[in-house]
Amino acid sequence: MPSLKDLKLRIESIKSTRKITKAMQMVAAAKLRRAQEAAEMSRPYAERFNAVLGGLAAAAKDAGDAPKLLAGTGSDQVHLLVVMTSERGLCGGFNSSIVRMARARIAELQGAGKSVKILTVGKKGREQLKREYGDLMIDHVDLSGVKRLGYEDARSVAQGVIERFDNGEFDVATIFFNRFVSVINQEPTATQIIPASFETDKGEGAAGPATVYDYEPGEGAILKELLPRGVATQIFSALLENAASEQGARMSAMDNATRNAGEMIDKLTIEFNRSRQAVITNELIEIISGAEAL
Amino acid sequence: MADTMQFDLVSPERRLASIAATAVKLPGAEGDMTAMPGHAPVITTLRPGVVRVEGPEGEAEFMVTGGFAEINAAGTSVLAERAMPVSEVTSEILDEIVAENARAREAATDEEHDMLTKVAAELVALGEELGISVKGIG
């Protein structure tokens, strides 16, 4: 049975924890709004870019002279997994869900006899994967110094990936990130970025032949220039989705924590009052029995 | 024929402009071109330069450092990696872009090197056009 003083101290400490989680929740809410705005701002670019690139890619595939970034190396022996996680913790299952998905994929690929390389973006994913797959990690991108995610950050990640691809270090690259669905729902997603695949391709058949464009310079030259940017664009939107998801996850995790702290405080307060009453009753009994003994 | 068309300028980070235009002058990779309503569909890459938009509400100028433009009968969209209104361009920004280019050239292969050298020259020319001094290129 904890003493009155102990209970009081515990209540105080939980109260200050609640203040912290409450503050974190509000900070996350503000950051979430900004991250969501950023994600929305980037959407027109990504959509148009993919539409143009999708058209070009389809044409090049038909012509059979697609660059390697589009057509692949012709093998799928070596896989590169780009695992994007957050730089900070205290965001619920956000990082674990990505890592779990990546782990499942690694096991599946290794089971099929493929070799796997891992590139991590964000500290938390690296920490979680290092224990098991430390020897598969080839690089880590640190974004902890980045306050506001910019396209430049995505471009440097993309550049690194493309360089490795050009050096023949891997055949297929997949990015893992959390797609932002809502504040309480983030969906771990894996997207293949090299060889490039385009979602827009599907709808094209139904819409009839697209407008026939003239290309300046030639189609091949444009495609060659656009494909690396396509990789960067995909990484950029993934990073933004991830940032929004992280804040959403943190917000709901901190909301839960705040509520739990509140419940705990209520419980402890009841216990505190009970034992205070018990102490008073005890003292009364002692006084009364003392008086009776006289 | 419609006398205006839709002009969109988007960068990965935000949409810079979405306005009606009567003519758009673009710094195409193979020469400047002006797109007007009803233009034949063209997709062209851009070199660093100024995109000049004329519309019913006056003129607007944007600096782009590359990217591409999609022109069709209904409108023109410019997708630029980096773009900003000309009035916001300072010599610091241009210097930074030139320095970035120089770093990229060091790491580049021969083929890319030529291309990047050309881009660097375009950047200096762009600075002159805007009346902004740019540090020399090495």
* Element-by-element helix/strand order of chain B: EEEEEEEEEEHH
Enter the CATH topology name of the largest domain in chain B. Answer: ATP Synthase, domain 1
Within CATH, the superfamily of chain A carries the name ATP synthase, F1 complex, gamma subunit
What is the gyration radius of chain B calculated from CA atoms? Answer: 15 Å
Low-confidence stretches of chain B: none
Extended strand count of chain A: 6
Which CATH architecture of the largest domain in chain B is right? Sandwich
> Largest interface here, residues on each chain?
A-B, 28 and 23 residues
Oligomer: heterodimer
What is the makeup of the main sheet of chain A? 5 strands, mixed
Number of DSSP helical runs of chain A = 7
Number of domains of chain A: 1
Low-confidence stretches of chain A: 200-209
| Derived structural class of chain B | alpha+beta
Helix content of chain B: 25-40%
Brief summary of the model shown:
Chain A has 294 residues and is α/β, with parallel strands linked by helices.
Describe this structure in words.
- The complex is a heterodimer of chains A (294) and B (138).
- Chain A contains seven helices and six strands; from the N terminus they run H-H-E-H-E-H-E-H-E-E-H-E-H.
- Chain A is of the alpha/beta class and 294 residues long.
- Chain A has a single domain, classed as Pyruvate Kinase, Chain: A, domain 1 (3-Layer(aba) Sandwich), CATH 3.40.1380.10.
- Chain A has a five-stranded mixed β-sheet with strand order 3-2-1-4-5, with helices on both faces.
- In chain A, helix 1 runs antiparallel to helix 7.
- Chain B has 138 residues and is of the alpha+beta class.
- Chain B folds into two domains: 82 residues, F0F1 ATP synthase delta/epsilon subunit, N-terminal (ATP Synthase, domain 1, Sandwich); 42 residues, no CATH class.
- Helices cover 28% and strands 42% of the residues of chain B.
- A five-stranded mixed β-sheet of chain B has the order 2-1-9-8-5, with no helix packed on it. In chain B, strands 4-3-6-7-10 form a five-stranded antiparallel β-sheet.
- In chain B, strand 1 and strand 2 form a beta hairpin.
- The radius of gyration of chain B is 15 Å and the shape is globular.
- Chains A and B meet through helix 1, helix 5, strand 6 and helix 7 of A and strand 5 and strand 8 of B.
